[in-house]
Amino acid sequence: MTASSLIDVEPLRTILRMECQRNYANTTVLGGLDKYLHKWARNTRDKLNSPELLTQFRELRLSDSSYAEWSVDKRKAWINDVLDWLAQAEATVAMAPVKRSKTRSKEVSRTSARPAVRSETGDKSLDSPVTVAKGIATSSANKLAKLGVQTIRDMLYFFPRRHLDYSQRKPIAELEVGEEQTILATIWEARIARLGFQQGTEVIVGDETGNMRAVWFNQPFLAKNFRTNAQLVLSGRVSEFKGNKVFESPEWELVEDKELIHTGRLVPVYPLTRGLYSRQVRNLVKRVLDDWVWQVTDFLPQEIKSNSRLLDLPEAIMQAHYPDSTLAKDEARRRLAFDELFLIQLGVLGKKRDWQEGQPGNAFAFNKDKLDRFLISLPFTLTQAQQRVLREIIDDLQK
Known about the structure:
The chain has helices spanning 3-7, 9-21, 33-44, 51-60, 72-95, 104-113, 122-126, 138-145, 152-156, 278-292, 302-308, 313-321, 326-358, 368-377, 384-398, and strands at residues 162-165, 180-195, 198-207, 210-216, 231-241, 244-248, 251-254, 266-269. By secondary structure, the chain is α+β, with helices and mostly antiparallel strands. It has four domains: 3-112, no CATH class; 168-264, CATH 2.40.50.140; 302-345, no CATH class; 368-398, no CATH class. Strands 2-3-4-6-5 form a five-stranded mixed β-barrel. A two-stranded antiparallel ribbon has the order 1-8. Helix 2 runs antiparallel to helix 5, helix 4 (51-60) packs antiparallel against helix 5 (72-95) and helix 12 crosses helix 13.
């Protein structure tokens, strides 16, 4: 077993190297590097059997890093230390003897049955069926297949049709009726209520500027999610009922020290089919992005990306789904559009080369006197550019 498969060395190393290339700007991971580090550390801590590695792990403070608050110089020095530690951890684990036991055959069987989610053969993993991702059952996979999504790679390139701009939060007192808006408020009360002829959920929320209602028709089961005094983000169109502002069936998320997916940001709107719902698809796509996008191989040389000011491919894919801003969304689209045109052009040139190599050329005889008489008969004189193109055509014909 390699160190990468045991303690996930390669994904973190790739991200840290990308962060170095971005001049330690804390933009490699959507939402900041600290969140990824804390998650990685939680999954890794118990797998460190070496006391020395564990001591260094604690000294690096991977599980409670404050990368976002550090200066660039401190970020640079810290990343260098972590990369050195990862190299040492990889070497230590690679040299460790494999313990054999009577249950060896069962362990091998279980290991071989696991999907290669974090294998170093990234491209092969990306072509695995979507069911290897957490939370995607066969029933959901069958529905996704109707939308052309069958593999992890398909899911990464399953881009939203558009985004709803829920990024600008407003105080309750400043909400405007008829507009799409977002608030951050405290839950005062949540209950199952009769809304029209059916039961639904009614929540009273408030901030320092006032209180208001939010209602969800025919969804009484939502009431149990809203705890009194919890912080709640609501995004949607504001209506008016009996002179009071109200959110009707808004998108919602509890603020629990996690990254917002459905509210408070540019929220993706994906194509749907019967049996798939917006929140469900957003959750599935976000989970696949977090776990898999860093395995995407960027085929463009760094020189081309630098000269054309293009995002790295994993970052472009992430920002195309969950952009940090409108500018980031546009930059992602520019990179992906460049890729599409670039690959089309390569395909055309490849076809041309195959055609040229597969067929012998037939040279055409060229009569210069006739061409000169024709050019003199024209009521205009060819420009320099036209003359150059004409020479190129003649050269091709003669070959």
